[in-house]
Specification:
InterPro entries: Ankyrin_rpt-contain_sf. With 60 residues, the protein is an all-alpha fold. The chain is built from 3 helices and no strands.
């Protein structure tokens, strides 16, 4: 899940994240640095991806 936040945050990455979340990926799972996918998306300014991940975190 975290690798999605390393891209450009564009539509392909948002769709990839949506598919991963739909398949049961945990949006709260932090990487080895303790950063969640949402944290990484926010740091990189990926607003659409951040919104999707924020919604997923609230729903899980």
């Amino acid at each position: 899940m975290g690798a999605v936040g390393l891209g450009d945050g564009g539509p392909r990455y948002v769709e990839t994240a949506r598919l991963l979340l739909g398949g049961g990926a945990d949006p709260r799972l932090a990487d080895r640095d303790g950063v969640t996918p949402l944290g990484r998306a926010e740091r990189r300014g990926h607003t659409a991806l951040g919104a999707l991940l924020r919604e997923a975190e609230q729903g899980t």
